Amino acid sequence: MRIATTLFLTDETIRPTRLAQELEQRGFDGLYLPEHTHIPASRDTPAPMGEPLPREYGRTLDPFIALGQAAAVTERLRLGTGITLVAQHDPVDLAKQVATLDHLSGGRFTLGVGYGWNVEEAADHGVEWSTRRALVRDRLALMRALWAEEPTAYEGPFGSVRASFAHPKPVRGAPRVLLGGAAGPSCWRRSRPPRTAGCRSVAAGCRRASRRCGAPGRTPAGWASRRWCRARSGPPGEVGALQGAGRAGGGAPTAGGGRGGGAADPGRLRAVPVTWRGPRALAPAYRARPRPSGVRRRVGGAVPQTDPPRWRRA
């Protein structure tokens, strides 16, 4: 198991260089830093974790500068953003920052992407809240054009770039990209892979999705069966092994499992449909093969009970 950490680094906390060295010495796999350029004092948007909003939200260090310092004093520690508010960046500048950090760190950078929750903060960057998801997808596509090996032009609904020479390039052609968001119908319906979520957020999001999908014509089973994901072979309890259906750079992003080097073992991955199972709505539908012993009955009862299945690779 590989364990990474995320926290708010501010002007009042430990410095990035010392934190990165301590994490690497203790065997941690990665360091992920959040991003907020500012928090408007007159804010109407409620904080997702409840009020009052912790003071560190308005004091965060720039994650790319902080991670650059961390890269300079470590050799193994993976570095990433958790998350980058892509809609609030100029995509040409952001593509250069990402490529430079990935190049200097030897391919250890992961670009965590999010849509944001603070309407006032986004508005100060000129972001239209209702179109921010489409804007993020468009800017990621523009950035990939700049990361391409050959000069590649891009024309999109929100921006464009001429075929250009843009170096350095990310080590593996493109950095690993993870998309994060609160699990729920809106996130999964409008997102594009790769995507991932932790067990706790998946469970909470699925409970909300269950309530919202209770309306006529929106059954949970019908909603969930249309979503696909990659998952490791194993028991259904491994909700945390959910992985993005797409590949970014040299390997599929993992949510806590997978092999070293950032790329998952292709022999252990397969695409499976998602089935609705209450709080475990996003648990993959594994194919099971019953033991030859078949069905037996409980002692003192007539309820049939099957032996535990043997899990096999797809």
Give a description of the structure.
There is one protein chain. The chain is of the alpha/beta class and 314 residues long. It has helices spanning 16-25, 63-72, 91-104, 119-124, 132-147, 185-190, 199-212, 220-224; strands at residues 4-6, 30-33, 78-81, 84-85, 109-114, 154-155, 160-161, 176-179, 228-232, 269-273, 288-289, 295-297, 304-306, 310-311. Strands 1, 2, 3, 4, 5 and 8 form a 6-stranded parallel β-sheet that branches. The longest helix has 16 residues, at 132-147. The radius of gyration is 22 Å and the shape is globular. Mean pLDDT is 74; it is low at 193-199 and 217-314.
Give a brief rundown of this model.
By secondary structure, the protein is α/β, with parallel strands linked by helices.
Question: What is the element layout, followed by pairings?
Answer:
Elements (H helix, E strand, L loop, with lengths): L3 E3 L9 H10 L4 E4 L29 H10 L5 E4 L2 E2 L5 H14 L4 E6 L4 H6 L7 H16 L6 E2 L4 E2 L14 E4 L5 H6 L8 H14 L7 H5 L3 E5 L36 E5 L14 E2 L5 E3 L6 E3 L3 E2 L3
Parallel strand pairs: 1-2, 2-3, 3-5, 4-5, 5-8
Antiparallel strand pairs: 6-7, 9-10, 11-14, 12-13
Spell out the key features of this protein.
26% helix, disordered C terminus, globular, 15% strand, two-stranded antiparallel ribbon, alpha/beta, 314 residues, six-stranded parallel β-sheet
Shape label: globular
Q: What letter string, H or E per element, gives the SSE order? A: EHEHEEHEHHEEEHHHEEEEEE
Tell me about the largest β-sheet.
6 strands, parallel
| Helix-strand makeup class | alpha/beta
User: How far apart are the first and last residues' alpha carbons, in Å?
Assistant: 22 Å
Number of strands: 14
Average pLDDT, all residues:
74
